[in-house]
Amino acid sequence: MENSEQKKPIILSGITPSGMLTLGHLCGAISNWVKLQNSYDCYFMIADMHAITVRQQPAELRKRTLETAAIYIASGIDINMSKLFIQSHVPEHAQLTWVLNTYTGFGECSRMTQFKDKSQVHAENINVGLFDYPVLMAADILLYQADLVPVGEDQKQHLELTRNLAQRFNHLYSDTFKVPEPYIAKVGARVMSLQEPTKKMSKSDANQNSTIFLSDSDDVIKNKIKRAVTDSGSEVKFSDDKPGVSNLMELYHIATNKSISDIELEFEGKGYAEFKPAVADAVAEYVKPIRTEFEKLMKDKEHLTKILQQGADSARGAAFKTLRKVYKKIGFVQF
Fold it and tell me: Which pLDDT does position 115 carry in this prediction?
């Protein structure tokens, strides 16, 4: 008898709720997640435990956590297809991290580039959690027996540690964890800062005019784009030596789905005075339905919290199964 329901590969990903999500998050991560839902068993978390490695205002963290969940849903994450949950609602993340800490070398964590970088930025608060961040990330992934993990350049080192820990534990105790592979998405649009177009758009940029937030109003988006840095000359051409205009062309491509060559043809013989308002209008129109749905979700926090509770209950089923297996293998008394 044929197995009518083929088991889908598992994918896990998440974003730290340290600020309102941006157009960069939408294009670089969430849009890809939405596409993955049909082919994969997806776990999408709001990584609030990772957030507290840097000092947070409690009320602000609560607000940003719910906002991040609302943006996920407004952007197309389907709660009937994917598990959407807050990391701290699944205590198995912390429990597995402690076990994995005892299999992680001090030298392995101290070599992590992100720890070195963040230690410089947050020199007043170099805490053990910041040092241990990659082990918590390993627990996030291994708890759900993830086959694949979407990773950016800055997380490749952490995934390599995750793979090493899985292999080490499996070698000592027999197969327990699936060894995850990186999921390399097709190269999508890379959204750069509106004020420093050689830098990625960031939710933590001190200059708010550099970033398009998914909660920005139409007028705010249009004003930010009209003030965006351009380059010398006035030709609308995609080129390495024209990072400002190239970034605006990328935004226009995202918003309209027109190819870069078609955009160059559309604005041939025209200058920035015509190009920038067209980009502004298109991007505002693109973000509008997401913002509208986001605002609707944020008006009913009780409903949003219920969605997250259901997601956590579902995620805990898988997490508990893995943790129970780990506890048994290392010799903890079961009940």
Answer: 63
